[in-house]
Design a protein that fits this description.
It is a single chain. The protein is about 30% helix and about 30% strand. It is of the alpha+beta class. It has one domain (about 1-105): Aminopeptidase (3-Layer(aba) Sandwich), CATH 3.40.630. The strands form two sheets. It has a four-stranded antiparallel β-sheet with strand order 1-2-3-4, sandwiched between helices. Strand 6 and strand 7 (about 135-145) form a beta hairpin. It is globular, with a radius of gyration of 14 Å. It starts with a strand and ends with a strand.
Length: about 150
């Protein structure tokens, strides 16, 4: 298994993984309603967004994407059968390091307000802290090292 940058050729695999996550799974129709389509992701990757994926010889099992203009961690998604192996942490580290190298001093993300969700504990364990709750979402942030 290995981590590598996402390319446009990987976009179909991202849309295979994203609806299959354990928490916050969104259907393809729900993603489309949010403006998240293969076409929009390809445009993002050509601009200020970058991403990394984890793959086995057989399939992509997880990915993470961030936007350097907004300093936002956009998404982390992992197939449930690969949870607990450190893959999510390695993907997040790629995004956090890239944001820092891009000149961001603080990153942010949104997640569910429910603190019992696994994602909340995962982010807290990585040093992310609560920022605010707004419009039914929890905003968290992370101070990034200067590089």
């Amino acid at each position: 298994m290995s981590v590598r940058p996402i390319t446009a050729a990987d976009i179909p695999a991202l849309f295979h993984v994203r609806p299959r996550t354990r928490e916050n799974a969104l259907t393809l129709d729900e993603l489309r309603a949010l403006g998240i389509t293969p076409e929009s992701v390809e445009k993002w990757l050509e601009g200020s967004t970058s991403g990394w994926l984890w793959e086995t010889p057989a399939e992509v099992v997880g990915f993470c994407m961030a936007d350097r203009t907004e300093a936002e961690l956009l998404v982390i998604a992992l197939l449930p059968e690969y949870e607990g192996r450190g893959i999510g942490g390695q993907l997040m580290q790629q995004a956090e390091d890239w944001l820092a190298r891009s000149g961001c001093t603080r990153a942010w993300l949104t997640t569910d307000v429910d603190q019992s969700r696994r994602a909340y504990g995962f982010y807290r364990h990585r040093g992310w802290t609560d920022w605010k709750i707004e419009k039914g979402l929890r905003f968290m942030h992370l101070e990034l090292p200067r590089v």
